[in-house]
Design goal:
This protein has about 525 residues and is of the alpha/beta class. It has 3 domains: about 70 residues, Immunoglobulin-like; about 325 residues, TIM Barrel (Alpha-Beta Barrel); about 90 residues, Sandwich (Immunoglobulin-like), CATH 2.60.40.1180. The protein is built from 13 helices and 24 strands. Strand 6 and strand 7 form a beta hairpin. The structure holds alpha-D-galactopyranose.
């Protein structure tokens, strides 16, 4: 069995992320340099470095936080966040180089945990209307999604008319007769509502204008209309394509939203700015500067296990997300894009690609789609039709769709112990421990000190996967743990204990092809 040690994984990570410019390499961390916390909450910041660099110390840490040196591979800051305020600490690298880290502690963070909700694009594309948005909003309650934590009803592209009005403002399309009543309806269900625009001249479908040059008026309208979230795409950009151009374009909207919220007498943190640049310009390095609190890191996800052509299959998203875990944190979320569980090949754009394969994930692949997205601590956005989770024929999407797998889909997307991985307030992403062509194993630090483990079989046949607990640096040496199976809500083997560094150090589990099993250590 091939096992890649952490140092090698770190090296692969540098290669995977690709060329950093020379200036960045000289004095930068390979992890976030702008971090956030709620006051008094457990806080963790992993100081992963580029190959050849090493953290030699940290100055200016607020009281309650300590530099921890007990893990091979990286040092990390850990402890209880201080009272609200703007802090700065300075990380020293070998050779005396310094990296400043901005640390915002506030009770008013726009996204302390990754948001959860529904995006209309894959299942509905242009088939959206006030009535359909209301029907989807009803689905949150009917099928217990609201109870499981989903609370954002997000309208994607194609809600507006193709052209701006004579006053230069965006105009609602004819299928949205009374948008004020629609927003009230969704809010009345105790849900938040999101809208969509683009940082270029037109949105990605080309169906409606983008907000470039109109940031102030559009932000004013989104706030006036009482939206809570904006997904902001990057098609048809006219201000340039470089990371710096994108940062400028996103900053323009971030600033406009902030201004509009203040002008309306609202707290800017009551609005979520969701950047959708697709990852090409490495938004994890700079997106937090723009006011965004989550950002897409991947091409559009597709309803396939493997989609080499578009880069949108589960495998392709995993390949990106597993490299950028050190950048994940509270109020700064790397987004792995919409979940495709429940689509079963019935979506619209989600069926593009697949190189001749039939679209749709099987049961095991659905466990991996949902389980890994939770391990990534990605925002959880369902893109299936959540109004057909009763197996009855449903033609809301523009074609008659029956979801015969509704019961298992629902069990997956509402599994509370799995969702708790995603929503953990420590905000850490799963970090690969073993990463081979056949399987990937990740550990995830959790706020209550009970780490999680994912074991994913990437190969086409069921196999035994062996995990040596002494390779899980999040576990404490010498301590005895019980392992809990999160899909099945039970402790393993009648409470049999697994003990790090002792006879029970090895844990072997048979995992079906393409499945992900999830555990926590207690
Ligand atoms: C882009 C985005 C998608 C979706 C479409 C809408 O492709 O990445 O998520 O919003 O635009 O046109």
């Amino acid at each position: 069995m091939r096992r890649i040690l952490f140092l090698l994984a770190t090296f692969a990570l540098v290669v995977g992320i690709g060329a950093q410019n020379v200036k960045e390499q000289k004095a930068a961390l390979n992890s976030a340099n702008k971090v956030y916390s709620l006051p008094g909450k457990p806080f963790m910041h992993k100081l992963v470095t580029f190959a050849g660099d090493e953290v030699t110390g940290v100055e200016g840490l607020p009281k309650g936080l300590k530099l921890m040196t007990d893990r091979p591979g990286y040092k990390y800051i850990y402890g209880k966040a201080p009272a609200a305020g703007e802090y700065k600490y300075t990380v020293t690298l070998n050779g005396g180089r310094k990296v400043d880290v901005g640390f915002t502690v506030s009770k008013d963070l726009a996204q302390p945990t990754p948001f959860m909700g529904v995006l209309t694009w894959n299942a509905f594309q242009s088939n959206i209307s006030s009535d359909i948005i209301k029907a989807i909003a009803d689905g949150f309650d009917t099928f217990g999604l609201k109870e499981a934590g989903y609370d954002h009803m997000c309208i994607d592209d194609e809600w507006a008319k193709h052209d701006r009005g004579a006053d230069g403002r965006l105009q609602w399309g004819p299928k949205f007769q009374d948008h004020e009543e629609l927003v009230r309806y969704v809010h009345g269900k105790d849900l938040k509502i999101g809208t969509y625009s683009d940082a270029g001249s037109y949105t990605c479908s080309g169906a409606q204008p983008g907000s470039y040059g109109y940031e102030d008026v559009d932000a004013e309208d989104f706030v006036k209309w009482d939206f809570d979230l904006l997904k902001y795409d990057f098609c048809n950009s006219i201000g340039g394509d470089t990371p710096e151009d994108a940062e400028k374009a996103y900053m323009a909207m971030g600033t406009a939203l902030d201004k509009a919220m203040k002008k309306a007498g609202k707290k800017p943190s009551d609005f979520k700015f969701y950047m959708c640049e697709w990852g090409g310009r490495k938004p994890w390095l700079w997106a937090a500067n723009t006011g965004a609190t989550c950002w897409r890191c991947t091409p559009d996800t597709r309803d396939y296990w493997d989609d080499k052509a578009n880069g949108g299959g589960v495998l392709q998203v995993l390949a990106i997300m597993k490299e950028i875990w050190p950048y994940q944190g509270v109020n700064r979320w790397n987004d792995a894009d919409m979940l495709v569980v429940g689509l079963h090949g019935t979506g619209y754009p989600s069926n593009a690609g697949g190189a001749g394969h039939k679209p749709g994930l099987n049961y095991e692949e659905s466990l991996t789609n949902f389980g890994l997205w939770c391990m990534f601590a990605s925002p959880l956005t369902l893109s299936n039709n959540i109004t057909n989770l009763d197996g009855k024929p449903n033609d809301l999407t523009g074609k008659t769709v029956v979801n015969k797998d509704y019961a298992t889909d629902l069990a997956i997307i509402t599994n509370k112990e799995v969702i708790a991985l995603d929503q953990d307030p420590l905000g850490q992403a799963g970090e690969p421990i073993y990463d081979t062509k056949d399987y990937i194993v990740m550990q995830k630090d959790m706020a209550d000190g009970h780490p999680a483990l994912s074991v994913t079989n990437l190969s086409g046949i069921g196999r035994n996967i062996r995990v040596k607990l002494s390779d899980l640096t999040a576990l404490k040496a010498g301590k005895t743990y019980k392992m809990r199976d999160l899909w099945n809500h039970c402790f393993l083997a009648t409470g049999k204990k697994v003990n790090k560094y002792t006879t029970n150090d090895e844990f072997v589990i048979w995992v079906p092809a393409h499945a992900t099993y999830l555990y926590r250590f207690y």
